[in-house]
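=== Structure Prediction Worksheet ===
Name of assembly: unnamed complex
Input type: mixed (protein and possibly other molecules)
Chain count: two
Listed entries:
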Amino acid sequence: MGVNEQTKILLLGGGALGSIFGWRLQEGGCFVSVICRSNYEVVKASGYQIESVKYGNGNFVPDMVFKSCSEAIAKSDFVYDYILICTKSLPNISNPADLLKGCSVSESTVIVLIQNGIDIEKYFFEVFPKNVLISATAYIDTKQTDSGVIVHGERVSLYYGLYRPEGADGEVDAGKEAKSQALLEKLERCLVSGNVDSKILENIQRERWNKLIWNSTLNPISVLSGGSNSKEMLENPNIRQLVVNAMKETISVGEAVVKMPLEDFPSEDIPDLLIGQMLKRKNAVYPSMMMDYMFKRPMEHEVILHNAIKYADRLGIDVPILKTIYALILGTEAKYLKRAK
Amino acid sequence: MGVNEQTKILLLGGGALGSIFGWRLQEGGCFVSVICRSNYEVVKASGYQIESVKYGNGNFVPDMVFKSCSEAIAKSDFVYDYILICTKSLPNISNPADLLKGCSVSESTVIVLIQNGIDIEKYFFEVFPKNVLISATAYIDTKQTDSGVIVHGERVSLYYGLYRPEGADGEVDAGKEAKSQALLEKLERCLVSGNVDSKILENIQRERWNKLIWNSTLNPISVLSGGSNSKEMLENPNIRQLVVNAMKETISVGEAVVKMPLEDFPSEDIPDLLIGQMLKRKNAVYPSMMMDYMFKRPMEHEVILHNAIKYADRLGIDVPILKTIYALILGTEAKYLKRAK
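=== Predicted Assembly ===
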């Protein structure tokens, strides 16, 4: 297959998560360019060394490696079909859409946001209102143990759907909709060819809130209970009860926002079910915020907690636990970022 | 004045706080024995070296120094008038009254509890129902910088009153009451002679809750915001708001328990007033729980948070912030005590 027939992917954020998706998409037949930061030199020279339980071991050599998005677009003599954003979303530090600042992103390029949190799309929608935006949640256990060295477990799932800005209900342009659906399905074919568990969702916001139940609770509580992993938290009855109560707050906000239950079974059963699944895992989980805390990196509290709290305030829903956790996380982060300076 | 005419004080907990009270009581004419733990050898050999802004520098040599209460009582050929308990209250680790286990405490000895938290008296009342119990709150800025070396600032205030067990309302025995009042006043004369700011309160529980407004909020929040001191916390608008909201929860429980306002001005003004006073201080304050956190020592969360939460539950008062903070403190402590092992 020549380059011209290949689906062209530009991957922004070539870390533990991005590299696995890039690898699978390339294996599935796509042309994959990667933008790297800290691991640029290593990846440019020899690609990624990946050790994966699911896929076996491999060496992922991206078709092209760049330092920035503007370099990538300037040096590629074709239009990218998809830009995959696999970075953390830190709007409290800088506008996430600034990642694409200075890049002449074609209006025909689809922007795929593989990020945690709620309302992460608005930053891109404001700058690229004409581009198709795909909102995605990933379930994947992967870490970069050394520059360009990736250790991956068994799971790679991507759930995604079209981003529909708020207030756009009913204003469906049938032609645009059909084109967008075709782009969703084209991405799915690429992912499936790369053997990624892939699911297109009509209501991706429901899925985002579903994932937030976990992220908005175990993530910060893990930091605030002295850096406790999933087992240390959930085997402590006081912390477990706190997690359950915090989850209930997130569920109540999410259900009010998406205007339907977050699951197809009773909502009051969600916390115990999630906790049960977590405790069944062989190894304790170290949530991403805890890793950020340990490495003194900024945490994604704006999109994981604050954006949810802002919805709660707008809708008049009381979320005292989430607000307490949010304030403590801000204080904790301010303290360790100051120390790290 | 011979030993026989002196008021005899046995001080349990010869640390930063206890040593200052012991010193002042001796200066005021009392016979003062001190029970020391970690600093026993130093204090036994040469007493305390004290550097005080208020009192100047001095060497406090206790009249007697012991390793335990039973040793003190066995080796003293007189009955102590007062036993001052100046240790932390950690009923989740062991019964605080165990400090006096094996000591033949005379029924005529008054037990004075200089400790933080709520419901700290019940542990002693259960074991010593016939002794007069004095409940006290101390305001003092003092630390032990090295074994037996004490640095003290400007303030030493002791507020105290008779402990009246719950459900004892109305059952006043006039003879016992007069005797107890006389013992309160005798202690006051000793403290005033030693130039300590001393105040007998009819309703000491109101004062305890008043102090708890501060202790139940800034203390744990300081730990949970990454070890932030008073300025770091209160100059952060998110943390400050959390502190205010948490204080309101403590105030609402305290007022329901003591059945009256905690201050003589509107309760809604208390948080800003306390915070204002704190921010006016020249130096940032490092709350005691934060010091325990830094030195990986157990924290007084049982009497400072849990006992207050138990009152809230009994009275049907919602305290989601205090409950969140309590669970996180338990998780944090479990984690660092495990690491310290």
